[in-house]
Amino acid sequence: MKTIRSFTLVLAVIAAVSLADRFHFGAAFGAASPPSPGFVLVAHGGAGDYSNMKPEQIEMRRAAMVKAVQAGYAILARNGSSLDAVEATIRVMEDSGLFDAGRGSYYTRDGVPEMDASIMDGRTLNAGSVASLKHIANPIHLARLVMEKTPHVMLVGEGAEEFAKSQGIELVSPYLFFNEREWERYKNAKSAGFSASEEHGTVGVVALDQTGNLAAGTSTGGTVMKMPGRVGDSPILGAGTYANNASCAVSGTGTGEFFMRNIVAADICERVRYLHVTLDQAANEVVMKELVEQHGDGGVIALDQKGNVATPFNTNGMMTATVRADGKMAIQGWSKNAKPIIVSATK
Ligand code: ASP
């Protein structure tokens, strides 16, 4: 009888422990250490209005994003750095020709693209940035080289392209960036006299690697029909891109003039750091309140060292893809109420 009673007791304890494990009642059985965030990568493909975009175009952007994030995921999964993951993911998006970056860049009023990009390491605060590039296929790579191979943070225009040549990067003809879609957009915008547009397709990535380091990067062709020589927020540290292990990593997209005036990326991180608010509160306060009050359109992706993610946007859409160590990638944001599509991050 006694053996049956103690056997029942043992069974009850096993059941309770496995229940606790399942429902995370750790505290009742001695506090479990908080789960390690593992690694996380979040990418965006620009905030804006997707409502006039054909479903096939949205689908093409989604597919390009999946491919890009798979490249970043593979690096993080084999214990690579967040910087490498950010660069690799952005390069795939630049090469796709489907976003306002690299081969898909919007044109200036002169009918050619001018590209900006930046990358930042949250561990060291090292950063590299480039602007007003006309002959560089992968601006994000050049930004990385500025960070690693020069004593400077930012190089622009001809000087940046001369530096690229010295690093063995081929200067490509503007025809490389010619693309029917952008040419149509340019002609329409020109004939309608538009100086700006609701459309954005900038790309950006934030990542947390297995060693707990954050990084952020952004690459863009800027806004439609911008003046030649105009530089936006994307290459400006603290405006369109920022990363600091002490607070967070952010990449922004939207009308850059507002992001520069409001130092959006740094403001979000410094709120986390000094006001001790959550990442979500900080990002929402800046994007959904401060920017909205000024009619500044756009959104951000933000990530902290605990693996918290915030992706607020005040436009109709902002396509994002988020992946964690479990390899389930969630793509969403082409409309406010688009249900996330889950795909595998492993090819
Ligand atoms: N922020 C970019 C710029 O102003 C544009 C964008 O995100 O679409 O250059």
How is the secondary structure organized here?
Elements: H1 2-23, E1 40-48, H2 55-77, H3 82-96, E2 115-121, E3 127-133, H4 139-149, E4 154-156, H5 157-166, H6 180-192, E5 203-208, E6 214-220, E7 241-243, E8 249-254, H7 256-261, H8 264-275, H9 279-293, E9 298-303, E10 309-310, E11 317-324, E12 328-332, E13 341-344
Parallel strand pairs: 3-4
Antiparallel strand pairs: 1-5, 1-11, 2-3, 2-6, 5-6, 7-8, 8-9, 9-10, 11-12, 12-13
This protein binds aspartic acid.
Task: Write structural notes for this entry.
This protein is an alpha+beta fold and 347 residues long. The chain folds into two domains: 2-31; 37-344, Glutamine Phosphoribosylpyrophosphate, subunit 1, domain 1 (4-Layer Sandwich), CATH 3.60.20.30. It is 37% helix and 21% strand. The chain has helices at residues 2-23, 55-77, 82-96, 139-149, 157-166, 180-192, 256-261, 264-275, 279-293, and strands at residues 40-48, 115-121, 127-133, 154-156, 203-208, 214-220, 241-243, 249-254, 298-303, 309-310, 317-324, 328-332, 341-344. A nine-stranded mixed sheet has the order 4-3-2-6-5-1-11-12-13. Strand 11 and strand 12 form a beta hairpin. The longest helix is centred in the first third of the chain and has 23 residues, at 55-77. The radius of gyration is 22 Å and the shape is globular. Residues 6-35 have low confidence and may be disordered.
